[in-house]
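Two records follow; treat each independently.
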Amino acid sequence: MTSRLENLRRGLLPARSPGPAVALLGPGISLRPGRVHEATGPARRSFALLAARATEGPVLWIQPAWTAERLNPDGFHALAAPGRFLFAWPRRAEDALWTMEEALRSGLVPLVIADLQAPPPLTPVRRLQLAAEAGSKAGGPPLGLLLVPGDGGAAGVESRWHMTPAHTAEATAWRLERRRARLDPPGTWLVRRERQRFRAQRLAAPAETPPAAPSPAPVPG
């Protein structure tokens, strides 16, 4: 029992990456393999497809069976070949996390994505991190990605990203934020799609508002 608790505790600590970070859009926007990350916001699935675009080999996409939304190959074939995707539709919420854990532990699937309806609790995320570490030793370092609506909030993830559409009449674009990461600072980018290429422009952080100058003391009359 003590050994088990110790393993879970280690799952919360930063682990050395078993390989180079997977660059989604250049070195600034990357995901460390052998770990589990979180993508949030209304364009979180677009972020997951960018991760698929940056990797090779099969992609396992896990989604509860009762959800109505499904990926349409006609909508993402320009980013990644639909033939790379394997889909699993478990009937229970806990089975989605179990499926992800087993896939990560095997080390046979380079990218494992769980499309969830709510952030998972801390203990399952710890188990996923330990499974990803085990998969790094069993095969190639797997990359785990949790898709959570809204602002997310899964504790224990390696990094948390938030992606929202920022399309205009002239361009297809998204606003991408790195809101949390163990080893990297927060950052914000404007991602534009130009034909089959993506360009990311880092946005400056909002300038701090200087404190208001104190009012001059009244001069005695």
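The next record belongs to a different protein.
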Amino acid sequence: MNFQPLSSILVKAFSLFPSTSLCCAVLLVCNASCTTNQNRKKKTATTEPTPTAAVTVLPTSTGSKNSYSHVSVNGPYLALTFDDGPHPQNTPRLLDILKARNAKATFYVVGTNAKRYPDILRRIIAEGHEIGNHSTTHPSLSKLSDEGVRRELQICHDAVLSATGVAPRTMRPPYGAITTAQKAWIRQEFGYPSILWSVDPLDWKRPGSSVVSARLVAGANAGGILLSHDIHAGTIDAIPAVLDQLIAKGYQFVTVTQLLAMEQAQ
């Protein structure tokens, strides 16, 4: 079937029916048709999806050893870790500081606090950080029976998993108190490597934020695991200077399992 252009149809219509009213009607129909087509094009253009930038996700690992205090890596990477939280005021403030600098951290939470503040745990995970197991009541694990250690770790593990849907993958013994035998069976049973530290600013003694920041910056080196506590307001006060000075030196902050994956990559 052959279709004639609209212009030729209109010419024939005007020659057969030269009435003004008919002309106006035809023009109105054309106008409406054109407007509808233009609106359809505009609508199509505005509903097309906007492309988004790809997000780089670093690989993670629990490593190959039962325990780590430092990780051998090729590159200026550090793991900043915080113990004993979450704290209802300090931890959210810390998260704001980390977010402003796009720095990732690992939070070794105590089970009793994890149960009290599940919303903070969810925010930690949502913002790309990591949660590790720091026992339920913060005892010295080296003084407990295997069953006592198992109970301390399992309750905290379950609290984190229940709140976030993400299970802890590493643990830190309170006070660093753990035996070689405990490290081995904890790794075998829970899959946790025991994470200690390469720098301890002794912030629990509350020496002042400037002292805490100076100690963390001075002790940092590639593959280091920096210890601090988000239950102390003075520690949170120190973190902006720590981050800014170490970032200026070229360091990048990753989670513990990301740091361990870098060792595996080597």
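Discussion point: Residues 9-55 have pLDDT under 50 and may be disordered. How would you locate this feature using only the token line?
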